[in-house]
Amino acid sequence: MRFLKSFYIHNRFFRYIAFLAACFVLSYWVPILYPIGWVLVFILMALFVFDCYLLYTTPNAIQCERNLPQKLSNSDHNTLTIKLSSKYPFKTGISVIDELPVQFQKRDFEHNIHLQKGIPYQFDYSVRPVERGEYIFGNLNIYASSPFRIVKRRFVFQKDQMVPVYPSIIQMQQYDFLAINNRLSEFGLKKIRRIGHTQEFEQIKEYIKGDDIRTINWKATAKKNQLMVNQYQDEKSQPIYSIIDTGRVMKMPFNGLKLLDYAINATLAFSNVALKRNDKTGMITFSKNIETFVPAVQKISHLNTILEKLYNITTEFTDSDFGLLYAHIKRKVNQRSLLLLYTNFEHISALKRQLPYLLAIAKKHVLVVIFFENTELESLIGTDAEDLQTIYHKTIAEKFSLEKRLMQRELQQYGIQTILTKPESLTINTINKYLEIKARGLL
């Protein structure tokens, strides 16, 4: 049974059979082809037996290994590696078929190569998951064939490997490096000029053009005989909470990824940057209930707690209760904090229903409401209208787009900070708003 399970006929064998069949058919008109056909049949049978002998007499002829990371990063292109080597004394044709997890809905993975004896081969391929959870990689199937290409032998390696897909770790590491090296502006994160003197004192430095003359330190200036100014840094250890709405408004997908997962990825990357800048970070998720509450803590190890909580977020996408959120914040978050609320409003009436709760939260805390542009509508608005139906669709799309901007303006009129962003730009704009608030001393 083991032999039969590993035994396959090569596609080229059927071409040989077709050629022999053609010889026998043509022998009806050309009789000399009839004996030639039988000679070729016996040759093919002999080659068939010899090919089986070549493939099955070498034990453990093929070695293969699939290298998977401990965790896959959601919404990113994750690189996987497959390594191969051959013990066959001839040049071996190899077909690699990897059984990818069902979540990818990809059933045509195949990689064809030729292996020489003792010469290892390695190739990479990438996968992009768009859902968190457990991904099970099935069999790694290797089909080996000799230069005769008559039969194939199957080797099976590494059955059922499970890899969890976590929120975007790659994105988090990317912004982590930039935050440490103060290069966030390379990703479009603008520098904000500090206003006032609410920041903590850092050092005394030489005056350069553009420094605030109100920060001149006259005693240091007299000692150094040149203008010296006080330099301030952002206040540290301030509590910051990422609040994620897991209700039905966050189910809408863009580029295969739900708004909820965009918010989860942004929360992870932002929390890492905030912790590196010595602030306390916490997290709340809610819909009809308060599903997760992580108090704000300053320890770097706290990021692992946030990562696990984000990974385990599950939701039924029900209607969200903002009144319950307000009551929970009032009871649990006693210190004035920066609250980043990831939610979405498609109609201005939906905003007005939740506005009293948002205003109540904003009285005690610095509230930033983050909601999303509908990029599909924006692309529709940018197309040329060629008929009446397209004009109608564009008009409705422009109405929805205008409502988004009106919602942003109304929130700003009440003193609530807002971010209206494209889903793919969420992380950049969130970190940018955080740097702006810190620089202006609003918290």
UniProtKB/TrEMBL annotation:
<keyword id="KW-1133">Transmembrane helix</keyword>
<dbReference type="InterPro" id="IPR002881">
    <property type="entry name" value="DUF58"/>
</dbReference>
<keyword id="KW-0472">Membrane</keyword>
<protein>
    <submittedName>
        <fullName>DUF58 domain-containing protein</fullName>
    </submittedName>
</protein>
<dbReference type="Pfam" id="PF01882">
    <property type="entry name" value="DUF58"/>
</dbReference>
<feature type="domain" description="DUF58">
    <location>
        <begin position="204"/>
        <end position="368"/>
    </location>
</feature>
<keyword id="KW-0812">Transmembrane</keyword>
<dbReference type="InterPro" id="IPR036465">
    <property type="entry name" value="vWFA_dom_sf"/>
</dbReference>
<feature type="transmembrane region" description="Helical">
    <location>
        <begin position="36"/>
        <end position="56"/>
    </location>
</feature>
<feature type="transmembrane region" description="Helical">
    <location>
        <begin position="12"/>
        <end position="30"/>
    </location>
</feature>
